[in-house]
Amino acid sequence: MQKQQLLYKGKAKSVYETEDNDFLILHFRDDTSALDGKRIEQLARKGEVNNRFNTFIMQKLSDAGIETHFEQQLSGDEVLVKRMDMLPVECVVRNYAAGSLVRRLGLEEGQVLTPPTFELFYKDDALGDPMVNESLAVTLGWANDDQLAKMKKISYQVNEVLKDLFDKGDLILVDFKLEFGVFHDRIVLGDEFSPDGCRIWDKATKKKLDKDRFRQSLGDVIEGYEEVARRIGVPMD
User: Fold this and answer.
1) Which residue ranges form the domains of the chain, and what is each CATH number?
2) 70-80 pLDDT, tens per residue?
C-alpha cells in the first residue's frame, strides 16, 4: 500500500490517502502537545514508540474479539488502518480518580472507582473538549443511541482486557480515552491506544508513566513510555 497525499494533520499524527479508498496510512510523529495544543514539543523516538505500543495493544484487542481499524504496521512510525467516518466524541473510562475528574469533583487523586465510570467528551480543541451526555450527542447528531450503546460496551470490554494486561506488568490502568468510527455501517475502534491517551501508574510507587510526565513537566517522558512497553511485552526492535 503506497502513501499518497496528506489528508489530515493532527496534533501527533498525520493521515495519508492510499490507492485503496478503504484504507489510510497513519504516521506517528514525534510531536507532543498539551493544553489543547497550546504547548507543543518534539520528543525523540516518540512516534516510533507510540506506533509500536499501539500495534501491540490493537493486536491484543483483536485477539479478544474487539474489531479495530488496525490492519498492519508498515514501518517504525507508520501503520495501515481502515478508513472510517470518525464520530466527534471521545469515550473515557476511569478506574481511579485523576485529571479532570479530580478537578471537577474535588476527589483525591488515586481514589478507586467501583464500578469504573464512563464519560463522553465532545472533540473540539477550541472549546476544550467539553464533557457531554448521551442525550446531547444524539440531539446534536454526533452519534445515535445504538452507536453510543456499542461504544460504551466496547469501552468496557477494552477496560477488562487491558486492566489484566497492565496488572501483569505491575502497572495500574488509571483511565483512558477511546475514539470510534463507522466502517461499512458498523462501529469500529479507531485512533490509537498509547501512553498519550491513558494514565498508567506503577502499582507499588504510583509513579506516573504516561503523558502526565509531559503535562506536569516531570521529565523522562519517553523513558516512561518505554518502561511501560517493556513491562507488558511490546516488541521494540
Assistant:
1) 6-82 (3.30.200.20), 85-221 (3.30.470.20)
2) 999 999 999 99
